[in-house]
Amino acid sequence: MGFFRRGPRRDGRDTPRDPAFSFFSVDEGALFRGQVREAFAEHGLEVTVYVDVVTDSSGRQFGLGNLAAVCHNDDRGPRVWGELARQHAGMVLRTMDGPSALDTLPPEQIRAQLYPRVISAEGLDPQTFAYARSVAPGLYEVLALDLPESVMMLTDEALEPLGEVAWLREQALRNLRELPVEKRETVKDADGMRFEVVLGDSFYTASRVLALDSLVRRVTGRPIGLDGALVAMPFRHQLAFHVIRDATMIPTLNAMASFAASGFEDTPGAISPYVYWWRGGTLTQLSEEDEDGEGLRIVVGDDFEALLERLVEQDPPG
Predict the structure, then answer these.
(1) SS3 of 138, please?
(2) If you ran DSSP here, which 8-state letter would residue 6 be given?
(3) By the 8 A CB rule, do 241 and 275 touch?
(4) For the segment 60-112, what is each residue's pLDDT rounded down to a tens digit?
């Protein structure tokens, strides 16, 4: 008689956790870092491995956060971590050791491959990204060059010869609006809760919040009204939205808050665990961690509270 498992065995959450990546146990973290060191060695580079980065003899640093999350989320388990690490090391070294795309691509091609990207403030150096635009607390918009194997976030110095930032941003937004919708899912229940999720391999899927009006029209066939929409961008490959039209927004807000927090955890390219109110292109944060850090709570200002009251009056429960 055969025995079947749903997936490869991983250490339980009751085992001691890795100090940098809590989704790994201590033993899994050690295995992961060993695979990373071997992967760089196979590509001819000896590195020193620290908890969340590796460095080479010239002082170059390579962060491990995204790769760790990719390995953790791969359903095939630890048996493929070595291959994933080799692919990652090869891509990183080809990007760093080869000529810069900014030196080899003509300006018109650079502009055609330019996209705005929403990222977390964590790790963003304000000295080199002074032009970065704040879109919500802890979230910033930067410009990125889309390349076959990587995404190059462009610094102030890189943008200078390309033109005015405002003009480049308009070009990048046009490129963003023209991206195809790779996949769409609807999340709903019998009580009226409903929201749409746009997913894709594109590194700019979540960043489509910057062009939400055109995305919603393309997906639903209807524009966003004056009351705006709820949005969540848990990680770079996912964007959720609910256009506010009636009181079903209330159960949807709670569901999206849980959705965003769950999607943010342990994912590569994590952006935000919160849900936001989009109105006229402005984002207002609506969820946050409880004071004890054990859960979420909804926090609304006067404008949103007035919207809630009006929707309930228009569509009273029961």
Answers:
(1) coil
(2) S
(3) no
(4) 888 898 899 889 988 899 999 999 999 999 988 887 777 777 888 888 899 99
Q: Which residue has the tokens 């009351």?
A: 227
Report d(CA 152, CA 169) in Å as an integer.
Answer: 15
The residues that bridge with 48 in the sheet, in sequence order, are 55
pLDDT digits (tens, 9 = 90+) for 153-189: 899 999 998 889 999 999 999 999 999 999 999 999 9
- The rounded distance, in Å, linking the Cα atoms of 239 and 234 is 7
Rounded to an integer, what is the distance from CA 105 to the centroid of its chain? 27
Fill in the amino acid letter for 32: F
CA distance 189 to 171: 39
The closest of 281, 282, 290 to 261, measured between CA atoms, is: 290
pTM for the complete prediction? 0.81
Residue 267 predicted with pLDDT over 60: yes
Q: How far apart are CA 303 and CA 242, in angstroms?
A: 18
154 contacts: CB under 8 Å, gap ≥ 6 = 114, 142, 143, 144, 145, 162
φ, ψ of residue 30 to 5 degrees: the values are -65, -40
